[in-house]
Amino acid sequence: MPPPGVNPTFWRLLLDEDLARQTVVDVGTGAGRVALALAPRCRDVVGIDRDPALIADASRRAEVAGLANATFLVADADALPHFRDLTPDVARPDAVAAHMFLSDALIANAAASVPRGGVVVCCGFHVDHWGETGRPSRFAYDEPRMRARLESHGFTVEHLGVDRDVQQFPSLEAALAAAVGLEERWRSDGRWFRYIDFLEHGGRTLTQALVVAKGRRQ
Ligand SMILES: C[S@@+](CC[C@H](N)C(=O)[O-])C[C@H]1O[C@@H](n2cnc3c(N)ncnc32)[C@H](O)[C@@H]1O
Predict the structure, then answer these.
(1) Domain 8-166+208-217 falls in which CATH fold?
(2) For 196-210, how does the pLDDT look when each residue is reduced to its tens digit (9 = 90+)?
(3) In the chain, what are the domain boundaries?
(4) pLDDT tens-digit profile of 94-153?
(5) pLDDT over threshold 90, residue 45
């Protein structure tokens, strides 16, 4: 079972690796949800995030859980040249994981970090995510772009898929209720009015779509 809220395909693609002998870097680790669950399964895990409060939280959790092989560092993943030498003990990761964090720099840095045979496993917004709001996330990828990124950095694509969940609502009220927790955020970025417009024109869906990919370095 994946940790709560973690994409099951992403988790399976990671656990398919021989993690017990591996070092994993978890990029955009947040409060360490993925890294803390990986720690008992791998040799070492290093979680990085640019948010110091989240890194402090993840470090505290590792300490409370007695996970001595989990290290958390504040770092901007997009500004680093690679994910090697992040700690004195961890020279080179065997695998790079990123759950709900995607960027071109992530793929480039993963390629510069893992040895031949090493992997990057990542999951983030697909361009169809919340398509009803008329605007894809600026962090979203489609399959051709993700494939091109992986292949141009020397990864063989072992998995590239979209986990899609289209909620269908019986009424306008139900469609609004489903988005109530998103209203404040969507109002601030202009999506809310587009969603309302979609509903007023008879739309009754809300799409969640995540792209999940695994590349193995040649
Ligand atoms: C949606 S959260 C996912 C957190 C975690 N991977 C999880 O699934 O629980 C994305 C995380 O990426 C971090 N992040 C965003 N841009 C970053 C960057 N350039 N370098 C490092 N971390 C970044 C954010 O601070 C946030 O914690």
Answers:
(1) Rossmann fold (3.40.50)
(2) 999 999 999 999 999
(3) 8-166+208-217, 168-200
(4) 999 999 999 999 999 999 999 999 999 999 999 999 999 998 888 999 999 999 999 999
(5) yes
Hey, what are 155's tokens? 């990864």
Nearest CA to ligand 1 atom 13: 28
Ligand 1 mutation target, pool 49, 99, 102, 129, most atoms within 8 A of CB: 49
pLDDT-based confidence at residue 90 (cuts at 50, 70, 90): confident
CB of 14 closer than 6 A to ligand 1? no
Atom of ligand 1 nearest to the CA of 28: 12
Residue 211 makes CB contacts below 8 A (sequence gap 6+) with 102, 123, 124, 125, 126, 140, 141, 142, 143, 146, 160, 161, 162
Q: What amino acid occupies position 142?
A: D
Percentage helix, strand, coil for the chain under 3-state DSSP, each rounded to 5: 40, 25, 35
Q: Pick from 123, 92, 118, 166: which is nearest to 27 by CA?
A: 123
Regarding the beta carbon of 23 and ligand 1, being less than 6 Å apart is answered no
| CB distance 83 to ligand 1 below 6 Å | no
74-78, 136-140, 178-182: range with lowest mean pLDDT: 136-140
